């Protein structure tokens, strides 16, 4: 009997110790609002929406101290719609991220699962669309061609992220094809780095997806994730922000090159490029934010995009001009209300493209305006 009591006491003590060295955190963002679209397929549209600005999502993250500055870590994140309760990202339970791995204070973290690429990690935070948790959907570059708004995540991804070395961070990711005899059939790899110094923030990133139009549905990207249905995508860029006490100013440049492009997923006006030829997008963004009070800020961004589309009818060079202005007021540390207006104009150069603000129904003309008001709550 005494031995049983001693064993039970030791087990309880071990359980308490393990619990004290572990942590699990529940978090999320809920964005609910109303929007007005000046031209949704030829008609104006007033609509209730979820994630007009920030994608609504929730997640669970946790860690266990293994000793010696090493921890076991995991993260599960799920995107959803507030208006109807359905899952986003193709109906996945954890469509944002799902990974587990090890993290060390000196050497960084190594994780495996569904994760963000290095362009999202190191370059996107310098852009207006990628700065906020969950992104700013109405400010994405046309079709989110550079993935700064995190339109797709990477499956089967092995990822390394360094610790902060005096303001410098770097990392890399490899998304496996998971196909026997097809190592590069629907794979993705990326790398990036950032550096903070004296009020300046620098970032750069590169990603390459091979055979994104493959029938291999178990690879790095799936049809519900892909922005482009193309044989190859290369995206790279760099950016800089300057941060003062109340203001932030930024510039970001990105370029995306596509080979063997069939279509752009979700775009309804790109039939001319469904012939396996190429396309490219070059984006130039300037952004600024100013905190008038600890509760109230004004934010703005302008992006100029040069496009090049190849078709059997020749070359087309559309140009996009996009402006967004946002007012944001915090009711508390976790709850804010916002109003945002985004305007897009496209010079289509004979391509027949219509304006198409991210996350909205495309316009039947070369212009589109979207105004959104809403509330975000973080937990």
Percentage of residues in DSSP E strands: over 45%
What number is the mean pLDDT?
A: 89
**Number of individual domains:** 1
Using only C-alpha atoms, the radius of gyration works out to 22 Å
Largest sheet descriptor: 16 strands, antiparallel, barrel
Under CATH, the homologous superfamily reads Porin
Structural class by helix and strand composition: mainly beta
State the shape: globular
Helix residue percentage: under 10%
Flag low-confidence runs.
1-20
Q: What is the N-to-C succession of helices and strands?
A: HEEEEEEHHEEEEEEEEEEEE
CATH architecture: Beta Barrel
Distance between the termini: 48 Å
Secondary structure elements and pairings:
Blueprint: H1 2-20, E1 22-40, E2 43-50, E3 57-67, E4 70-79, E5 97-104, E6 108-115, H2 118-123, H3 128-131, E7 154-161, E8 168-175, E9 187-197, E10 200-210, E11 228-243, E12 247-264, E13 277-291, E14 296-311, E15 314-316, E16 319-330, E17 335-347, E18 367-378
Antiparallel strand pairs: 1-2, 1-3, 1-18, 3-4, 4-5, 5-6, 6-7, 7-8, 8-9, 9-10, 10-11, 11-12, 12-13, 13-14, 14-15, 14-16, 16-17, 17-18
Please give a handful of descriptors for the protein shown.
disordered N terminus, mainly beta, 16-stranded antiparallel barrel, Porin, 3 helices, 8% helix, porin, 379 residues, porin activity
């Amino acid at each position: 009997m005494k031995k049983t009591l001693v064993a039970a006491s030791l087990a309880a003590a071990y359980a308490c110790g393990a619990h004290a060295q572990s942590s699990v955190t529940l978090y999320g963002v809920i964005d609910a609002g109303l929007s007005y679209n000046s031209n949704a397929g030829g008609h104006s549209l007033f609509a209730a929406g979820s994630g007009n600005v920030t994608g609504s999502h929730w997640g669970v993250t946790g860690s266990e101290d293994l000793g010696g500055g090493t921890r076991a870590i995991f993260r599960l994140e799920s995107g959803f719609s507030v208006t109807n309760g359905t899952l986003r990202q193709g109906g996945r339970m954890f469509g944002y991220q799902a990974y587990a791995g090890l993290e060390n204070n000196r050497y960084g973290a190594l994780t495996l699962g569904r994760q963000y690429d290095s362009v999202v990690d190191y370059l996107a935070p310098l852009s207006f669309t990628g700065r906020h948790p969950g992104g700013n959907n109405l400010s994405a570059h046309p079709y989110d061609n550079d993935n700064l708004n995190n339109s797709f995540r990477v499956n089967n991804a092995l990822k390394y992220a360094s610790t902060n070395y005096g303001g410098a961070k770097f990392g890399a990711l490899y998304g496996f094809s998971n196909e026997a005899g097809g190592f590069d059939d629907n794979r993705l790899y990326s790398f990036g780095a950032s550096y903070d110094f004296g009020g300046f923030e620098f970032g750069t990133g590169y990603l390459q997806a091979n055979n994104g139009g493959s029938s291999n549905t178990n690879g790095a990207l799936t049809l519900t994730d892909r922005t482009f249905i193309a044989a190859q995508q290369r995206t790279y860029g760099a950016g800089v922000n300057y941060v003062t006490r109340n203001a932030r100013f930024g510039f970001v440049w990105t370029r995306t090159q596509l080979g063997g492009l069939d279509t752009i997923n979700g775009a309804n006006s790109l039939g001319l490029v469904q012939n396996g030829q190429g396309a490219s997008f070059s984006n130039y963004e300037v952004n600024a934010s100013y905190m008038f009070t600890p509760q109230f800020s004004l934010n703005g961004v302008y992006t100029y995009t040069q496009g090049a589309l190849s078709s059997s009818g020749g070359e087309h060079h559309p140009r996009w001009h996009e402006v967004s202005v946002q007012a944001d007021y915090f009711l508390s540390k976790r709850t804010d209300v916002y109003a945002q207006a985004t305007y897009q104009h496209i010079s289509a150069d004979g391509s027949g493209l219509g304006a198409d603000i991210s996350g909205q129904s495309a316009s039947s003309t070369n212009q589109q305006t979207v105004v959104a008001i809403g509330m975000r709550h973080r937990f």
